[in-house]
Amino acid sequence: MSGQAEKTILFRAIGADVAGNLDPLVDPALELHGPNGELIASNNNWADTQQAEIELANLAPIVPNDAALLIDLLPNSYTAIVRGQDGGSGIALVEAYDLSGFADSTLANVSSRGQVGTGDDVLIAGFILGGGGGGSTRVAVRALGPSLGLNGEGLSDPTIELYDGDGLLLGSNDNWKDTQEQEISSAGLAPGDDAEAALIMTLPPADYTAIVRGKDETSGIALVEVYRLE
Fold first, then answer.
1. Model pTM?
2. Quick one: which of 49, 79, 111, 118 could link to 225 by a disulfide (CB 3.0–4.6 Å)?
3. Which of 91, 107, 123 is at the close of a domain?
4. Residue 114 and residue 133 in contact, taking contact as beta carbons nearer than 8 Å
């Protein structure tokens, strides 16, 4: 988060209710950590705490085992971690909703780290650009792997694809220096490895999806990031 004002953010961890999820994390647990790694808040089953507040926001998960927490945060960097309760594993969706509207702060960057496999086993970042500001928003999307420093476990050659809410491909990139090198560098967002991917686009208010794949069906851990530039 950037800016001056406090914001109310709702975090959710969804497992079994994710559409098309054939291997869901059946009991996700959610942790929120501060800029120094300190644990700020956590939840396992969303209705155990803050049920009324979450329902009032019209964002109550359908499945009782899913997790959610609502919290007021000052501008800073935060990390939401989703784990399987009791060591469970599977595919989950982690979400952050800005409930404060157009206060004097903004969600300037969201990112997610996860395992990228082959076929449809991809890393996905969905984001919504609101229309209250009346115009389009310039965003940068990056897919990192080699520069994560994971001792060979990082995705060696990530690619990025950006789709609109109707599934139309708006842009894609394999190696970030191949296109928009000057623009990405000027934004201070040059990836640390030439094999990593990035693109910058100006987008109208709508829903968007960024998908990270491994080139030539490679697999590994990747980080997908979305930056609001203006």
1. 0.87
2. 111
3. 107
4. no
